[in-house]
Specification:
Distance between the termini: 70 Å
GO molecular function: asparaginyl-tRNA synthase (glutamine-hydrolyzing) activity; ATP binding; glutaminyl-tRNA synthase (glutamine-hydrolyzing) activity; transferase activity
Subunit structure: Heterotrimer of A, B and C subunits.
Low-confidence stretches: none
Protein name: Aspartyl/glutamyl-tRNA(Asn/Gln) amidotransferase subunit B
Helix content: 25-40%
Number of strands: 17
Number of domains: 3
GO biological process, one term: glutaminyl-tRNAGln biosynthesis via transamidation
Largest sheet: 10 strands, mixed
Structural class: alpha+beta
Strand content: 15-25%
Radius of gyration: 30 Å
Shape: elongated
Organism: Echinicola soli
Number of helices: 16
Length: about 475
Amino acid sequence: MPSQEIKDKYELVVGLEVHVQLLTKSKMYASDSTEFGNLPNSNISVITLGHPGTLPKVNKRAVEFAMKLGLACKSEITRNNIFARKNYFYPDLPKGYQLTQDKNPVCVGGTVAITLEKSGVTRDIELTRIHMEEDAGKSMHLAGEVDTLVDYNRAGVPLLEIVTEPCIRASEEAYQFMSEIRKLVRYLDICDGNMEEGSMRCDANISIRLKGETELGKKVEVKNMNSFRNVARAIEHEFDRQIDMMEKGETIISETRTFDATTGLTAGMRTKEDLNDYRYFPEPDLSPVVISEDWLESIKASMPSLPRELHERFVTVFGLPEYDANVLTDSKEIALYFEELCSETNNYKAASNWMMGPVKSYLNELTLHIEDFPVRPKQLASLIALIDEGKVNFSVASQKVYPEMIKNPSQTPLEIAQKLNLIQESDEGSLKPIVESVLAENEAKVAEYKSGKKGLLGMFMGQVMKKSKGKADPKVANKILTELLEN
């Protein structure tokens, strides 16, 4: 590994190619099912397999999903979309070519804003294009088997490929870009972003150059990465490996490499020079897809609130810290639940604390989604109001009232608190005898307090809460305690 002094001489240059598998029920050019997990080679037809005489047809929903992502990324939407054949021969590509977009992608340009965790700096990652294409099948190399098995279920599943400019300069930027893309596609309901199942995949084009140089170096493409962290690790390893080669006077060759998550190393697969020309040409069996003004406007009207918009609203309108806003906008469903909760209460910080604390703990413990959460925003707002009004404290609310609300969502927090006899006693006339009794039973401690041990106030408060069975209003009890001790 090169020293930091040597690394500081070089600049990392990365461009990402992110594939997202679309949540359509049928394939990009055929009506076959896209359901994941079915028996191998059961989601296929003569169109998917490219039999002679068959004709493909473009999936309208996939085009609409592409338009949504393009609008979210501020891309220019191409009105006249032509598809092309990308010719290459591989076992998992049954037709011997892939239907994709070559010269005129559906989305041109655009940006994705990222925020770096370490520095808090926000910057735009520039996009080259977003284009529509179909997925290939899946080759399987089973242990002990000589032959390669191929499952064509995935062949023809709609994909969007998001290609960035070579503008990424650190592994953290790549990590945050991937996170933002996953967040976007989930908010748009166009992809589940599940890297483990292959519905979101990433290839990284990595090169280095001396700082101050403008010409790009020879790029290495790293494939087979199944997590954001592995993308970052592969970039870091390639940066070090290429610097070592440059320092030794070796030539970096343009090649495709694979990443081993166990060792954290990359290994060569094939050189770019050895690849056959894809020989793109317009697909003769597909008519151009024309996006009309009315169609585009209808998609614009259907766009949901996006994570950056909600984040801005949570910080500027609701006054939340950046951390809270980041956590709450990580999931679309959580963000929308919180937004509805804030329409029922003005105590936005308390609402945030409940969402990030008790609510998320309950969901995580039972691996549930917010849709399965039995307490609706209006009920949770009523519980927050109960605390704000001094009728119960947070401890009682979270440990006794809240669990009962989950069991009996039809009951209001006030009804539950009354039924369990948990309403706080706030009347000074009722609380004063309890406080006097505690002080009378602890005369020695009172003397110590008067001699300067002010930290004993907490002990007295604990005794008051115990004697009142937790029903004493802490603010009122503390006021009475302080007055009696000081006088």
